[in-house]
Task: structure prediction
Amino acid sequence: MSSSSHRGGRRRRYLPGAERKREILDAALIEFLAHGLTKTTVEGIAIRAGMSKSGVYAHFGSKDQVFEELLMAALPTTEDSFSVFLSEANGSIQEIAEAYIDKLYARLDSPLAAPTFQLLITESKRVPGLIERWHANILLKMRASSQALVDECVRQGVMRQSALTEHFEIVLCPIVYWLAKCVLLGERAEDTGLSLVKMREIHKKMFLALLLP
Result:
């Protein structure tokens, strides 16, 4: 077998580092879902990704590091904060709110969204430090900054006071519902009469109804 091939006889594709790393994470997600964190091995991830163990170690120091990066990619980051979006976007509150919902649902449109959410739920107790750091360093700061900006918009009369503006983090509840349904029903989730596209439009209507003066 030539050095440009791997198991199965296929020629190995040479990709930029970022793309190869993405392939490793995609393969790792399948392995973690099939075997769990404890029983998954770097060798299994490597075989699934079509590379050697050393190829995986060239990008990740350990299996745990692969797992942590996979989960962090699924968790909201500061870029998902409504405060950042509201501060940087142009247009009316309605246009900004609709664009914000579109951005959130663009992430859900990935076939990896629901499986990664499932992995997060089933395995997060094995990495409590990771979840605690994310909660303290990202989630709490996002919640505080968004709530402060929304409170100011209410004071200025740009938004109306409602259950949503008083506890703005509940804006994500429909997304959590959609992900939970996908985990429970799998591909059948789209057959329940509430597709992702329809869910997004309903979410927009609810958001605007509770937000606009």
Remarks:
- The radius of gyration is 20 Å.
- Residues 1-11 have pLDDT under 50 and may be disordered.
